[in-house]
Amino acid sequence: MIEIRIEMPELFSVEEAGHFREEVRSYILDGHSSFLLDFGACRFIDSTGLGVIVSSYKKCVETGGTIRLTGMNDNVRKIFELTRLTNVFEII
Amino acid sequence: MGAVHKEVMLHGLERHQMVIDGIIQELELEAYAFDIRLILIEAVTNAYYHGNLSDCSKPITIRYLLMDQLLKLQIEDSGAGDGKLVFPEAIGSDELLEEGGRGLYLIRCFSDSAEMIHHTMYISKSICPS
């Protein structure tokens, strides 16, 4: 199964979360369900960003795929740790 | 560090990131940019969706005061202000895959105190000198 790499935006908040949701939805409609989210350029994420990633993850799992995360800086990683999403996602 | 006490008004979420960045620059708190941006974005988002029920015509007011290394924030929405708002102390295992419910928890994590009185959220955060 091909893993699609998505580069996350610098600020991942309300507006960007909507774009991400549509991008993942489009890939899923094309038959893809495994994604690697590259946070290398991302320096901020909020609860809206987390929520849309979780929502997308559930859709991927339903179709046999998953979402993995990479490249997080300390601040972004802290958000995932505080919300215990490090227990959900594979972080590489 | 001198005292700054100002307020700014928003309608909807089109300008909120720019306004918040402006507050951080004005207070010269770039070293705390991540924490303050997170607190304010979560509070403003909450005010817009839950206080103003996504009505762009209703204002959201941010008031900010920095004095004696203590940042005080007030985020006022235009809602009825009669709902009880709980700032969770933790994310439960059964809540991990919920799409929402993390914003107030994150405000609590990144501030010293946070409470909602009527339709205004009161937040304080210590700012240690560099």
Which descriptors would you attach to this protein?
heterodimer, A: 92 residues, alpha/beta, 4-stranded parallel β-sheet, two-stranded parallel ribbon, 3 helices, 6 strands, 23% strand, B: 130 residues, alpha+beta, 5-stranded antiparallel β-sheet, 5 strands, globular
What pair of chains forms the biggest interface? A-B, 24 and 20 residues
Q: Biggest sheet of chain B, in brief?
A: 5 strands, antiparallel
Q: Rg of chain B to the nearest angstrom?
A: 14 Å
Name the structural class of chain A: alpha/beta
Helix count of chain A equals: 3
Q: Classify the beta-strand content of chain B into a percent band.
A: 25-35%
Distance between the termini of chain A: 18 Å
Describe the strand arrangement of the main beta sheet of chain A, using strand numbers.
1-3-5-6
Describe the structure.
The complex is a heterodimer of chains A (92) and B (130). In chain A, strand 5 (66-70), helix 3 (74-82) and strand 6 form a beta-alpha-beta unit. The two termini of chain A are 18 Å apart. In chain A, helix 1 runs parallel beside helix 2 (47-62). The longest helix of chain A is centred in the first third of the chain and has 16 residues, at 14-29. Chain A is an alpha/beta fold. The model of chain A has no long low-confidence stretch (mean pLDDT 95). Chain A has three helices and six strands. Chain A is globular. Chain B is α+β, with helices and mostly antiparallel strands. Chain B is 29% helix and 28% strand. Chain B is built from three helices and five strands; from the N terminus they run E-H-H-E-E-H-E-E. Chain B has helices spanning 16-26, 33-51, 103-110, and strands spanning 4-11, 59-67, 70-76, 113-117, 120-126. Chain B has a five-stranded antiparallel beta sheet, with helices on one face. In chain B, strand 2 and strand 3 form a beta hairpin. In chain B, helix 1 (16-26) runs antiparallel to helix 2. Chain B is globular. The model of chain B has no long low-confidence stretch (mean pLDDT 92). The A-B interface holds A 11, 13-15, 43-44, 46-48, 50-52, 54-55, 57-58, 75, 79, 82-85, 87-88 and B 13, 17, 34, 37-38, 41-42, 45, 91, 93, 96-100, 102-103, 105-106, 109.
